[in-house]
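Bumping my old thread because nobody answered last time. Still need a sequence for this structure:
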């Protein structure tokens, strides 16, 4: 469903990612891993189109989408939860979720119950301002907003980063629940926790110094330890 080959992505003159080649198949959870600063978020931004790749190809369901804007990619089924979440702090939880629904062209005035089923905390807080939520709740809201648009491909950039340790498991459980309920949804997940990645991923890519240096259906300890800094 998604295939990138040799994507080159960076900021202005500085090239950060040099061979961003990866594939996410329908219904797969693919984990993109690697130490801090190796270029994972930059590659994901190139895939979403937030940064425009300077080289390489990007295909979605067999069609080249390298030229299409992030809004167009969203319309075609890309959901993106960036690092830092970027929810609307002055809008209520409900309003944030409605924005997610609208981004898919749906004109709905109420949030469908199935979204709250994934995030019971958000249901209780639906009239609270996004900015008043805890970090973990904001992360749930960011994931909920992306899911509300009914994506075919969900891009999650380190969803447990900066979350209180006792809440991390809740976010992980939510992602596992989404995987088990939405069998056709493909997920590309940037993840630092090897344990969680092993639990959820069908396939792994590891980056080092702007390049994909490992891929496989399992994380073999002796091959990957040094790349993950564990
Ligand atoms: N807005 C920016 N402008 C210029 N350089 C940037 C920008 N954002 C990131 N970089 C640089 O790109 C490199 C890769 O960063 P990136 O965020 O993609 O790494 P990462 O693997 O996702 O790491 P982390 O887990 O710390 O987020 C780093 O050297 C970083 O300094």
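Sorry it took so long. Here it is:
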């Amino acid at each position: 469903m998604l295939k990138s080959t040799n994507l080159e992505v960076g900021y202005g003159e500085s090239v950060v990612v040099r061979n961003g080649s990866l594939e996410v198949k329908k219904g797969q959870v693919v984990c993109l891993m690697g130490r801090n600063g190796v270029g994972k978020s930059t590659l994901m931004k190139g895939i979403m189109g937030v940064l425009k790749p300077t080289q390489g190809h990007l295909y979605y369901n067999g069609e080249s989408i390298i030229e299409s804007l992030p809004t167009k990619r969203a319309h075609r089924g890309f959901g993106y939860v960036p690092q830092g979440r970027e929810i609307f702090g002055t809008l209520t939880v409900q309003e944030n979720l409605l924005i997610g629904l609208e981004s898919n062209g749906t004109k709905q005035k109420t949030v469908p119950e199935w979204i709250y089923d994934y995030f019971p905390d958000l249901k209780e807080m639906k009239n609270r301002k996004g900015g008043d939520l805890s970090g973990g709740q904001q992360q749930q809201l960011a994931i909920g907003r992306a899911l509300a648009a009914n994506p075919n491909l969900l891009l999650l950039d380190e969803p447990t980063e900066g979350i209180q340790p006792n809440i991390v498991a809740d976010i992980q459980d939510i992602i596992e629940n989404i995987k088990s309920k939405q069998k056709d949804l493909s997920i590309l997940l940037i993840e630092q926790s090897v344990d969680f990645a092993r639990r959820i991923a069908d396939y792994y890519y590891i980056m080092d110094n702007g390049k994909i240096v490992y891929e496989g259906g399992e994380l073999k300890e002796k091959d990957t330890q040094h790349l993950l800094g564990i």
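Residues 165-181 form the longest helix (17 residues). Let me know if any region looks off to you.
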